[in-house]
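Bug report (template v2)

What were you trying to do?
Predict the complex of my protein with 6-O-phosphono-beta-D-galactopyranose.

What happened?
Run completed; filing so the output is reviewed.

Input:
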Amino acid sequence: MKTYSFPKGFLWGGATAANQIEGGFQEGNKGLNVADVLPGGKERLNILMNAGFDFEIHQDQYYYPNHEAIDFYHRYQEDIRLFAEMGFKAFRMSIAWTRIFPNGDELEPNEDGLIFYDRVLDELHKYGIEPVVTLSHYEMPLHLVKEYGGWRSRQVVTFFERYVKAIFNRYKNKVKYWMTFNEINSALVMPINGLGFSIQKEEDKYQPTFQAYHHQFVASALAVKLCHEMIPHSQIGCMILFAPVYSFDSNPENVMYALQEEHLFNYFCADVQVRGEYPAFMKRYFKEHQIELEIQDGDLELLKEGAVDYIGFSYYMSRTEKKVKTKEEATQGNIIGGIRNPFLHASDWGWEIDPIGLRISLNKLYNRYQKPLFVVENGLGAYDKTEEDGTINDDYRIDYLCEHIKAMGEAIEDGVELMGYTSWGCIDMVSMSTGEFSKRYGFIYVDKHDDGSGTLERKKKQSFFWYKDVIASNGQNL
Ligand code: BGP
């Protein structure tokens, strides 16, 4: 059997986000963020995708899974010990902005929040695990959403800069790898998460969305610049949801359409953050949709100065496109759109499984940017079953991860520079899109269920032992 050679020092590990694991949503003076008011269940995806967002209405009707989540807030020591047992070299986590600035617009940071992450980071270092920290992972302070309209407002750039300065200052000796905004491009399909507002009205789809993006790009560039100044030995990346777009067939109309979709979804945000400038194809897009960005003096220079050091990206699926879709076809695609690909199988949630797509993504990104790449999310959401003897035999997850790791091995042979792999949801947690616990990704099972019941006990799945061996052999034993 073929073996793969991963570089020395490859950052094997797992990935999480504060709002999906921590719980303790009002502890340590934490303020409310967008994720705190998103209900679990069917309603959630509609809200994410655009059904609008009314905190007051939802407040008493629903179960809010992230309020307790998996209680990492109190159990981080136990969890990190398990990550260490698997041999993690890196752990991707995010800092909840609202633990540090509860409303987002205060002048001084909240010491309790800072202390919490001091403890988590110290615990990771105790085991030699390198933290990889996302500055903002779908956790915008609710106050900024309600009072300022989220990233619509340029003022939010100043608040973000203050937040970032506070955490760089505090953790400069503890964190070497940073990322700015999680899946920044995802707001094109799920705006509430990233931009802090929904785009229900057609007229909101263009001007406000892209103006808000401009503000985020400026904020990202400021963070990169600050990071380089304040923590010279660090590296800071962007984070893109990358899903290579395939044309359904060789009809040039469809090929062209797939290319345009790929430009907008996969490359627009990445180009601005990696090359430090708006790509040429956006000029036409802006013109056709009557978008006129308000760009302040110095913004374009700042974008250049704030180009990232590496490209972090999540990879779950590819997307197959066709210019004209029937109604039926249009509803059969992945969460991010497209139509069903007849060559692929899908997960129980309809996410198409395509390991070769990961090799394609790595090649595409490396050919375009020649910057180090970091797969910071990839994994299989599945229903897991505990056997009578207590074991959890998740061989489907092992197969999935194994094929994707092989695809990375192939891409490395293709010449791609790859820094690491942090598989998503190394421990079961709240699902971002469903808000449920039954969509599990972990190597570690957490006894917690969709109705909120469960003991929160942690158990090692079969994949725990498999991944441990993968890491110990630096990817040789798959
Ligand atoms: C990514 C997000 C994560 C995450 C993952 C899996 O888009 O960055 O926060 O949860 O997808 O998605 P889900 O939990 O919906 O299965």
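What did the reviewer find?
The chain has one domain: 11-472. The first helix runs from residue 18 to 21.
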